[in-house]
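To close the chapter, one final illustration. This time we ask the reader to focus less on the individual chains and more on the assembly as a whole: which components sit near each other, and how the overall shape emerges from the parts.
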Amino acid sequence: MIVPIVLLLLLTFIQSALLPFDLILIVIIVRSFLMNSRSNYYLAFLMGLLVAFLSGQPLGIMSIVYLLVVKVVHSIRLAAFASHWSVSIPVTFITVMIYYLLSKFLLGISLNLWYVPVQMIMVVPLYLIIGFWEERFIGRSVIKLKI
Amino acid sequence: MKTLLLDFRLFITLVLISSSVLVLDKVGWLNFPKIVVQTVTTPIQYGIYESTKVVGRQFSFLTEARFAAQQNVALKEQLAGLVLDKARIQRELNELTALSNQESTLLPRAYSLIPTRVIGVGRYLILDHGTDKNLQPGQAVLYKDQYVGVVRVVSGNTSQVLLPSDPDSKLSVFSQGEAGRSQGILIGQFGSEMLMDKILHQEPINIGDLVYSEGLEGELPRGLIIGKVSQVFTRENEVFKQAKVEGVFDTKNLDVVFVMEGV
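The assembled structure is written out below.
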């Protein structure tokens, strides 16, 4: 859990200084799609606070948006058709659009459709990187069968 | 089922905590801790922003070499024209100076400006001052008498600037060229471009004309340079003309900008 937090912290600083779109959102979507874990909620909450703080938005607002996004992705992930990795692309599209609509209502920021394809393209490499990391480097608790 | 219920409970708890934080921030109770934390985060943001600029400059020659060669030829032609213009303007200036010596002249405009450092640029420009320097939403941001944007959101030690290229930005402007003056509304487009709309057909506007602020918004003085006309769209069947406007400098290369305290 420490490594994702450190990487997300670094990404948040880079995003706030350079990027015109929300990269943290994509990482959170992909991670939520890959792992139906409660840690996604904590990450969404913490990163939401940091993103809002660094970009000068009211604290807490981005946490609510990210938490809703995680909830939506987890809900879609429960469906049987959502097991294939390619489903992550339309899921990202849906959640990015929800994110933009929430930003429009909560922050009064207009919809920027130009960045949607960029964010969609980033899903595949991020999916592979996060998937590889979670599969190879994160330990899981041992499953014991009762005989 | 039990896991789903636990997840939902966690989700609701975190949303409630976020809402509480939001309320506390809106009330202003978090201003002091925010300022304390910003003393650490602002230098990091500035460092990342500056480092990227340095790296970008190192590699920019790769993309700009071909463009620079074409630009060099065009500039030589322009230079030849400018030498002729300079001689004519010098003569006219001498005549005007003689005339103005006999008239009372107006004082040059002076604005009270607050210098701030740029610490990030994404969709908005992020500045390293906020309520600590008494910045307020709606204040104009300038760079060498040129319009950069308007302060959108202010927090403890940072503030966001809405750029004129942002689609949320709408300004009343006028263009000034050799053919004359035309008025319109400047609307941001995504990217670095702006669209000057609602120009009457009878008003002259040409490529290269400079675009200035009209000063009707209240927070902006009249006459700040906003950009240059790069393309004019004229359709006879439409009531108004449009023109594409590009900024006169690259927003991504700014180090210091100035916030105007009042018009």
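The mean pLDDT of chain B is 83. Chain B touches chain A at residues 6-7, 10-11, 14-15, 17-26, 30, 34, 37, 41, 44-46, 48-49, 52, 119-124, 126, 130, 153-155, 158-160, 167-168, 190-191 (CB under 8 Å). With these observations in hand, you are ready for the problems at the end of the chapter.
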